[in-house]
Amino acid sequence: MIIEPKIRGFICTTAHPDGCREHVRQMVKTVEERESFDGPKRALIIGASTGYGLASRVALAFGAGTRTLGVMFEKEPTEKRTASAGYYNTKAFESMAEERGLYAKSLNGDAYSRDMKEAVLTAIREDLGQIDLLVYSLAAPRRVDETGETWSSVIKPYGQSYSSKTLNLSTNEIEEVSLDSATDEEIKATIKVMGGEDWQAWVRFLDEAGVLADQAKTLAYSYIGPELTFPIYKDGSIGQAKQDLYRTADALTAEFKPKNGLEAYVAINKAVVTQSSAAIPSVPLYISILYKIMKEAGTQEGYIEQMERLFSAKVYGPEGVLTDEQGLIRVDDREMEAATQAAVNEIWAKVTTENITEYTDLNGYWSDFHELFGFGLEGVDYQRDVDLEIDQGQADV
Ligand code: NAD
Questions:
Q1: How many angstroms does the Cα of residue 391 sit away from the middle of ligand 1?
Q2: CA dihedral sign, ordered 192, 116, 28, 83
Q3: Rounded to whole angstroms, how far apart are CA atoms 69 and 134?
């Protein structure tokens, strides 16, 4: 089958195995071209197949020789349907790690479930003994908790309504989006899905099983962003869940540091194109403007550059863990530079459907979006007849 992108709004329902492989290969190359660093020996990455979790895994494995265990929730291929991108990414990652003699195992299933926690524990016991780092990089629309109850997260403002410009990803037109405040029930559900409860459950579970090494670290990720997205992100429903994540980091450090030296942190990452960020109103338009400004200023980073810098300089660098006064690790520093934000605001005020290609990096947005699913990568033969049940990516590694 010749695989083509099938994009509906912010979702692409196909993925290209060769393109995903090439995408991962480029990430590996980026990391290997930088200086290696003294990172953790063994890491568990939850949400390891796309976006920031995949980039964390690549940065750690190929930058520090970390042996990684990854957890993901991805679709395998069938006779008629391609696998999801994260499935192909993970196959590619595993084979590139193997070529370098580096341990990499991945488990595909629901990270919120008890079964997955047990399966991870078995893998740690059998293969790694203990772990020195737990990265929690889940982004999920829903969670079935241990009692069987399903919680669905929402992306809405909270305590106010929201009206703003947004990019319609189906038409590339700028439209107005209006959303009412989330209800308290919706906030509760969003915190259940994207807050700290499951992160804490993982840490407690692994500690009770004795597989957290002394002085281990754990990291989860968040975003703050500019004032113009505060109502829909930082102060909105997702932001409420992130507040819960910050409280959980403090609670985990307070609970475990006296016991085994564990420290828990939240890293604030930069806005990048991922499957999750594409779903947030106004954010794709903001990213298109931001990319243009940051590329012109020479400060642009994708998720692999972000995660390489996070681990090599801010977590495992010579000065130890570097945080701001609130205890957060900031890799959004370049995005938040005053000159960058002033330039974004100026464009935000005047961007319209007519001038969008002049004022924003819309092409850069779409090329990153396509790459997430393995499309548009140089050197990949997109005319190749792919056998969906067999092929897991054949680009040259
Ligand atoms: P993503 O959609 O690219 O990745 C999500 C990962 O979670 C995938 O590996 C997926 O397989 C996995 N996953 C989802 N549900 C799962 C489940 N039930 N069980 C197991 N695995 C599951 O998302 P992302 O944008 O990289 O987001 C990761 C984290 O980074 C989130 O906390 C997000 O808030 C944060 N972040 C993102 C941005 C951004 O601009 N994208 C910026 C700052 C922080």
A1: 25
A2: negative
A3: 10
Ligand 1 atom index nearest CA of 84:
11
Taking the CA of residue 222 as reference, the ligand 1 atom at the shortest distance is: 44
Question: Which of 147, 232, 238, 223 lies closest to 190 in space, CA to CA?
Answer: 238
Q: What is the spatial distance between Cα 50 and Cα 140, in angstroms, rounded to a whole number?
A: 12
Could you identify the residue written with the tokens 């993925």? 15
Q: Ramachandran region of residue 251, left (φ > 0), alpha (ψ -120 to 50) or beta?
A: alpha
**DSSP state letters, 166-220:** EEETTTTEEEEEEEPPPPHHHHHHHHHHHSSHHHHHHHHHHHHTT-EEEEEEEEE
Q: What is the pLDDT of residues 201-260, one digit of tens each?
A: 999 999 999 999 999 999 999 999 999 999 999 999 999 999 999 999 999 999 999 999
How far apart CA 197 and CA 273 sit, in angstroms, is 26
Q: pLDDT digits over 180-204, tens only?
A: 999 999 999 999 999 999 999 999 9
Measured distance CA(116)–CA(119) in Å, rounded: 5
Q: Is 223 in the pocket of ligand 1 (CB under 6 A)?
A: yes
The single residue listed with the structure tokens 């069987």 is 148
Pocket of ligand 1 contains residue 137 by CB under 6 Å: yes
Residues ≥6 apart with Cβ < 8 Å to 225 = 233, 234, 271, 286, 332, 335
In the numeric block, which tokens belong to residue 361? 């990096």
**Is the CB of residue 221 below 6 angstroms from any atom belonging to ligand 1?**
yes
Q: Report d(CA 256, CA 121) in Å as an integer.
A: 19
How many whole angstroms separate alpha carbon 157 and alpha carbon 177?
Answer: 12
Contacts for 160-164: CB closer than 8 Å, 24+ residues apart:
160/231, 160/235, 162/231, 162/232, 162/236, 162/281, 164/228, 164/231, 164/232, 164/281, 164/282
- Does any ligand 1 atom lie closer than 6 A to the CB of residue 277? yes
The total of other beta-carbon atoms located within 10 Å of residue 155's CB is: 20
DSSP letter at 313 equals I
DSSP 292: H
Q: What's the pTM?
A: 0.97
Identify the DSSP state of 67. E
